[in-house]
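Q: Joint fold for the lines below.
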Amino acid sequence: MMNRLATTVMGLAFAMLGAITAQAEEIAAPTGAPILTVTGDIDTTNVDDTLVLDVDRFAALGTVTVETSTIWTDGVNSFEGVPLATLVDLVGADSGRLLASAINDYTVEIPVSDAVEGGPILAYRFNGEEMSVRDKGPLWIIYPYDQSADYRTEVTYSRSIWQLDRIEVVR
Amino acid sequence: MPATTHMRAKSGLTLLVTAGLLVLAAIAFLAINVDEEITQLGSARSDNVQWSLSQAEVEFLEYARQLDNPTDVVQLTRRFDIFYSRVSTIETAEVFAKLRAHNDAEERIAEIRTFLNESARIIDAGEETILTQSQALKDLASDVRPVIRLLAKSGLEVFSRSSDQQRAEVAQTLTQLAVTLAALIGALFIGVLYLNRLNATLAGRERAQAQTATRMNTVISTSLDAVIVSDERGRILEFNPAAEATFGHHCEDVIGRDIGEIIVPDHLRDAHEAGMERMRRSGERHVVGKGRVQLEGKRASGQTFPVELALQSAKTDDGEIFIAFLRDISKRVENEKALVEARDRALAGEKLKTDFLATMSHEIRTPLNGLLGNLTLLRDTRLSKEQDRYLGYMESSGRLLMSHISDVLDITRYDAGKLDTRSEPVHLSALLEDIIDNQSGMAVENETTLDWGWDGEPMHWIVSDHDRLQHVMMNLVGNAVKFTRRGKVSVTARVDAIDGQNQLRLDVADTGVGIDEDLVDQVFDDFVVGETARNREVGGTGLGLGIAKRFVHALRGTISVQSTPGAGSTFTVTLPVQAATPPALSASVPDLVGTPQALRVLLVEDNEMNRIVARAMIEADGHTVVEAHHGREGAELAESQPFDLIFMDINMPVMDGREATRHIRAQTGPCRNTPIVALTANALASDQTALLEDGMNSILTKPLSRDALRRVLAEYGTEALEEADPMLVNLDHSAETRQTVGEAAFAKLVARFTQEVDDLLAWLGSSEPHDYLEVAARSHKVAGSAAIFGALQLQTTLKELENATRSGDTSAFEHSLRKLPAVWSETKPRLL
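A: Joint structure:
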């Protein structure tokens, strides 16, 4: 428990650091296979008016690790990814909602207000391994469910979309 | 009672609190349950499961559709991967645990896994393989399609059942909660009712206590006795107005102070402190709860006074308290003291009076004895006719005076509890006969007939006190005769058996003047004399009946009177009696035999007059007398000289007669065995026994009579002589008498004696019926006369006759009677 909390706090620190660096530089166009495409009303772009990130650039945003159990997995597992707050800061979305879509075109709506420090992350590693599509990759929005009962709700579960590859920011 | 209520209230409250806590715990438990249920509902761990299942089916259909266009390998692979991830989720996710537990579902999932693995081998092999084996993929997909459908259906079934169960659980928990809440409300309601009632009870009790306290305060403050309350250390808690008045302290000054310091006198303080200490230590109480105790108290001024104290203790919440009720009894004690003093004074006065009376009577009697003795001696001298008459008057006056003094002495002796009675055989018939004889002269004078007799079976011999009984009957008969003129006095004796006890009843009935009604109740009181002329005429001290009453009481009897004024009175004496055995008859009569020898006599007597009289009487019989003036002188004389006989007075200065007797008996002198005869006016039976124990041989009562003296002299003078046949006539004795009385008088006496004996013989020889008692009495009288003239054989014969008649021995009587004329005819010529 303590261990997990410490990890979370450490992750938060990294996230803030990442946010600062992200704002400081332009993000280059991806060289590898893109794992996330951000569209919509965003400040930061690299391919046309979208922001496309491959694994390296995505990880470069700053990752944190959340250890939690979920209703879809067995036991407590370690999830590593970029906090949603980092992404929201990066694209300058301080309000509105995010429309997150999976590769099967399934879309959920996440209010920007959910993107808080210590809140949901865009996980790309499950127990240290990058996630394949069969393992709900490439990205999975994970809330720290164990941390608060507020995260163990129907709404939160419905927002925990896996096989995520696109986000549209709507202000 | 308050303690019990208190307890009950306490246990009730405890019960209530426990019940409330239990209900609260139940509610808390149920609330947690409900919360969990709500959390479960709220956390929706399973709600999207069905959606996930159906979504899996959708993904499978997407994949299957993509198989129709296998050339887009990337899309096909993606569709497969998506479906794959769905199934993986179903296989591992916690939310599907229930589904997996379902037997059918488990099998179906396994079938789907087989499908996935087989399809994945083809898809993972690369584009070429996918294209070549697309038909195989299609077959696999179509095979598994119904399985996926059935799995979705199973999921629906499992999860709907589970949610039903959950709803039921929620409903049940809510119901329990409702019931528990109802119970709580009920408990609270009962609690409220109970507390309400408790409150009412407490209020009522408080009111009652307040009333009691008010009442107590009123009682204490209006109490006439001082009331002081203290705690167990002796500190004053209350001090009522009466206490203020009694002790002179103000209540507010003494509250809280030590009670010993305030009310206990200084000299009793230590004892008080010790008592308090003892009580504190051991609980031992000497005064508390022991009723009223008389003690001393102290006023504010320091003055001590007697108080009456009652101390009680009571237990209170603040420890034990002591309530003292005190009463100032100075007045009462003073009165008691005065009363006791007055009584003591009165008693002392009474005693002084009695002592005075006794002393005076005794002092008067002694010289009177001397007077009477000298009169007796005077009669023996030659007197003129006139002198003889005066002497007679003097003698009768002297005897009357003596009898009055004896009366007074008897009364004082009785009242002092010193009147003893003897128990001896008494010949009641003879006693009454003597009295009748004695009074017959007076009766004749009053022209009154006097007789007596038995009513019923006579009891001649009884156990009684001869002298006392004689005194009583003499008094009653004498009174009856005195107050009856030309009438009749009759004495009746009878014995009744009452309750197995013989009771003698003696009635003295007269036909005289009677007694006034208002005097009847007083006749037995002292100094009561009638007021009538007749009473004054007969005279009297008024002591006679008083003494009679005392004597009767001393004999354990009763005396009473019934009287009708003018018609007569009947006095009745009743006595408890026993029949007595007649004393043995003595055949010979040596008592009256004259003494042939002169005796040497020691006379120990302090009173000069008594000495003179006794000496004259003793010397008159030819004995020699040596005088001693008191016991010591007597004892000394007895030690140095021999005596034949000693007369010993009892009450003497220097050494009394009893001590002198003990000395004489203890010494080795010549008189160690000499007979000693006590001379005493005190004839009490118990005293006589004491005298004999001292060593005296016999007792003579004063005043001395010549006969008694002579009998004693004869008894001890002839002791050494052999008992001889009675002489016909003791001429020596006859000569002595002749010498004593003078020749002329002697001749006259002989003539009278001769006549007496002749008369007796004539009477005895006559044909009229003879009363045995009369025979005895007359024989006795003549025998006494015969002794004076030394006519021993005549005397003996007469004595035999008397004894025979008294014992009723007919043959002995006839024998004596036949002998008598012969003896007389022989004696008669020898008298002169």
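Q: Anything notable?
A: Residues 1-218 of chain B form one domain. Residues 371 and 762 of chain B are 41 Å apart (CA to CA).
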